[in-house]
Amino acid sequence: MIRSMTGFGRGEARDDARQFIVEMKSVNHRYNDIVVRMPKRLSYLEEKVKDLIKDEIKRGRVELYISLEDIGEGNTDISLNSPLAEKYLTCLKGLRDQFQVTDDISVSLLARFPDIIKIETAEEDEDQLWLCLKEASQKALQCLMDMRRDEGKKLAEDIGNRCTYISGIIEIIEKRAPQVVLEYKEKLRERVNELLEDSAQIDETRLSTEVVIYADKSSITEEIVRLNSHIYQLRKTLTEKQAVGRKLDFLIQEMNREVNTIGSKSNDLEIVNHVVELKSELEKIREQVQNIE
After folding, report:
1. What are the Cα distances from residue 288, in Å, to 27, 30, 36, 56, 292?
2. Percentage of the chain with pLDDT > 70?
3. How far apart are alpha carbons 293 and 289 in whole angstroms?
């Protein structure tokens, strides 16, 4: 079943130390374009996230927003640099005694000096970090894919209905085409009669030759056969599981080419009106195809 290129998904995962929230949205795009926005400390995991998405999505622009919250207590260590604190204290006492200033030395004052209290972030377990991010990403991706499949199903239904309508118009044109040749023959005969005083002078062989030439030039049999073939291929493609957007786009282009040829060959107003209708329906299908993966 075909898939749309539009969708949204959200996933969450957590362990003892952290919580991930991943939001993912996709829109139509000619190629497979993946943009990841994540904390800098996770940048080394960007390619893994992209590979995860590429396994499922072959076409479209995908944007990921990854947020990380530390919820554990083991990631940060705070320590006191006692030798340095002692030196600061000695200097402060010397300053007090030398200049006879008020003794306001306190813990809060010492804590303001650089490097007295060290805050260090413990090294993270990269494998555990990836497992948590992977779980959140897979949940978001699953929601995204479900939405793309649901919308794709509706697109396929709409395109299928339009194909049925187009087939009906083609059938009408196919039935009308032989009648156009007969009408041309009668009009040609009437025109010749108007020009000749004696209708007995009409050369039936020459008349038949002109009609045959006209019928050959205006024949749309090949175009109709190809159009029906393209419709069959289009319907078949709608049931395929892989990305088919480019293939559908190609089929629509070929169908447009055949319809244009029918229009250029036909001098019949009724057929021309049907050609206009066909082009309108094909344009609607083309717009839908632009959003198919």
Report:
1. 13, 14, 27, 21, 7
2. 86
3. 8
Q: Can you tell me whether residue 140 is helix, strand or coil?
A: helix
Q: Which range scores top for mean pLDDT: 15-19, 78-82, 150-154, 199-203?
A: 150-154
In this structure, CATH architecture of domain 7-73+125-148: 2-Layer Sandwich (3.30)
- 212: pLDDT strictly greater than 80: no
Q: How does pLDDT run across 150-169, given as a tens digit for each residue?
A: 999 999 999 999 999 999 99
Q: Which residue in 46, 90, 84, 89 sits closest to 65, CA to CA? A: 46
So where are the chain's domains? 7-73+125-148, 76-121, 150-289
Q: Is the pLDDT of residue 16 over 90?
A: no
In Å, the largest CA–CA distance within the chain is 142
Residues 6+ apart with CB under 8 A from 10: 21, 22, 23, 24, 139, 140, 143
Residue 212 to residues 127, 209, 222, Cα–Cα distance (Å):
78, 5, 17
Q: What length is written for the chain? A: 293
Stated pTM of the model: 0.71
Amino acid at 196: L
SS3 percent helix, strand, coil of the chain, rounded to 5, is 65, 15, 20
